[in-house]
Structures are given as structure tokens and as C-alpha cells.
Design goal:
14 helices; EamA_dom; EmrE-like
Length: 311
């Protein structure tokens, strides 16, 4: 067996791909505190412009041959749509992060999983099932507990974090409706380019002329981590892995980004997690699992009950 064939077979193994999804979830969970530190040092949109400009260059070099081949209008339009919604998502998430804690930001952002079925319905892709409605109710209860922990109503950072979920949900709907048959990595390259352009324009219009100080080694390392690891690597691994694992298992592993974010926030940011806040996080996570994998889990439970017991 040749080395190339062995590598392809290894990359197709479910366990390897589950590890890819877990890596992406862990990396993005850790990045909440990383971004929290950066937004206290530089303007939000300047930060996003630099991050995604770097990600665009790295991604373009990674898929340069495919980028030259795949120049169809459909791929570019998909990249434009993903870039616009992606910019909206990261803008609201990052501005929201500057006004709330990393843990709250992580879990309120994760509500996008519950929003997807309803947004898909609005685009004519099928009516939400009973489990989706139940998941939405549970999610709203969880959000209520998170909000009540800091005093009602929700603060601006929490509202922006929730708004971010609408943009993320829009991305999933766009991909499911128009992403079939399109090279995902090429579309992602266009997405990063659009996000960088939108962030740079917004920074120029609203943040004025920002002259950054001489970057330290730590600053450069952090930006490289966000651009290469959190953006290019995680998106690439997730796009590859999600087509090779059970959707229910994949979605649950991906949703672990939120608890990873809280755990890291407690360790690094010293965020105080009260019992009420913890209960809210737990309800939101249950709602995500219920919405994404509820039917599959129920089917497996029914199958296990109907199988004969052997001795």
C-alpha cells in the first residue's frame, strides 16, 4: 500500500475525524479568552481586518491551484454570502465579547444551533419538528437564567452575542441551500477575503486612524494563532470531518466549544460561574443537543429497547 493511499484511509477513519471536530471545538473555546485580551488592547474591527487578511493569504496559498481552477460565479457568490454573514457574526460576537464575559459570550453564541431549523423554515426548507420547538423553549429558559444572573434585562454584550447566533445560523442555511457541489475551501477563501474587506472598511469609517504600537512577539504569535489555527486550520478540518462522521455525533462534539469556552474562562479570565449561571449554561447546551441530535438519539434509544436480550 502506498503512503498516499494510507494517509487517505487514515483521514477517512471516523475516530480521526471526531478528533478533528474535538480539536476545532477546543481551539475555538480557548479563543474566547484570547480575543477578550486583544479587544481590550486594539479596536475590534481593526483586529478582525488583520486576522482575516492574514487568514485570506494563508488560505489562498493553501488552495492556490484549486483557487485558479474554481473561478465559477456560483463559488464566488457563495463566498460573498458567507463573507457577509460571517462578518456580521464575528463583528457582533467580538463587540459583544468586549462588553460581557467569555463564558456568557460562548454559550449565548451557541444558541445559533437552535435557530437554524426556524431560519431554514423561513427559507422554505421544511417546517421545524416538535423537538425543535421544545429545544427553543429550553434555550429561552437558559437565556433567561443567564440574563437573570447579571440582572434583567440582558446587557448590550449579551444581546450582541445572541445576535451573532442569527448570523451563524444564516451561514448554515446558506451552505445547506446553495453549497452543494461547490469547493468548500475555495468558497472559504473568498469568505475570508470578504470578511477582511468589510472589517477594514468598517474600521476606517468608524474607528478612525489607528496607529498600532510596535507588536511584541506575543502579539504576533496570538494573531498567527487566530488566523492560521482558529480560522484556516479549524475551518478546514471541520469541513473535512463533518462529511465523514455521524451528523448527530459531529454536532454534539462541535457544541462542546461552549463548555470549553467557559472552562477556559474560569481558568484564565477567572470568571465567576454562579449556580444560576451554570444552570443556564446547562439548559442552553441541552437545547443545542436536543435540536441537533435529538431525533437520532431517540431512534437509537428505541432500537436499543427493541433489540432482544441475549444471555
Amino acid at each position: 500500500m502506498s503512503r498516499d493511499v494510507a494517509e487517505v484511509r487514515l483521514l477517512d477513519k471516523p475516530l480521526v475525524n471526531k478528533a478533528f471536530i474535538l480539536f476545532a471545538a477546543l481551539t475555538w473555546g480557548i479563543s474566547f479568552t484570547t480575543m477578550k485580551g486583544l479587544v481590550s488592547e486594539m479596536p475590534v474591527f481593526y483586529l478582525l481586518a488583520v486576522r482575516y487578511a492574514m487568514a485570506t493569504v494563508v488560505m489562498a496559498l493553501w488552495v492556490r491551484e484549486r483557487l485558479l481552477r474554481e473561478r465559477g460565479r456560483r463559488t464566488m457568490l457563495l463566498g460573498l454570502a458567507l463573507g457577509a454573514t460571517g462578518f456580521g457574526a464575528y463583528a457582533t460576537q467580538t463587540v459583544g465579547l468586549s462588553m460581557t464575559t467569555p463564558g456568557k459570550n460562548a454559550f449565548l453564541t451557541a444558541c445559533y444551533c437552535v435557530m437554524v431549523p426556524f431560519l431554514s423554515w423561513a427559507f422554505g426548507q421544511g417546517r421545524p419538528g416538535a423537538r425543535h420547538v421544545l429545544a427553543a423553549v429550553v434555550c429561552v429558559c437558559g437565556i433567561g437564567l443567564v440574563a437573570a444572573d447579571g440582572g434583567l434585562p440582558l446587557n448590550r454584550g449579551d444581546v450582541l452575542s445572541l445576535s451573532c447566533g442569527v448570523f451563524y445560523a444564516s451561514q448554515f442555511v446558506i451552505l445547506s441551500k446553495w453549497g452543494a457541489g461547490v469547493d468548500a475551501l475555495v468558497a472559504t477563501t473568498w469568505q475570508f477575503a470578504v470578511m477582511a474587506a468589510c472589517a477594514a472598511t468598517t474600521s476606517w469609517l468608524f474607528e478612525g486612524t489607528y496607529v498600532p504600537p510596535m507588536p511584541t512577539v506575543s502579539d504576533v504569535a496570538t494573531m498567527l494563532y487566530l488566523a492560521i489555527v482558529c480560522s484556516c486550520m479549524c475551518f478546514g478540518l471541520l469541513n473535512h470531518a463533518m462529511t465523514r462522521v455521524d451528523p448527530a455525533e459531529g454536532s454534539i462534539l462541535s457544541a462542546l466549544e461552549a463548555p470549553f469556552g467557559v472552562f477556559n474562562s474560569v481558568l484564565v479570565y477567572h470568571e465567576l460561574v454562579t449556580p444560576r449561571l451554570l444552570a443556564g449554561f446547562a439548559l442552553i447546551f441541552c437545547a443545542v443537543v436536543m435540536s441537533e441530535a435529538g431525533e437520532e438519539l431517540l431512534n437509537r434509544l428505541r432500537q436499543s429497547r427493541t433489540q432482544p436480550v441475549t444471555h
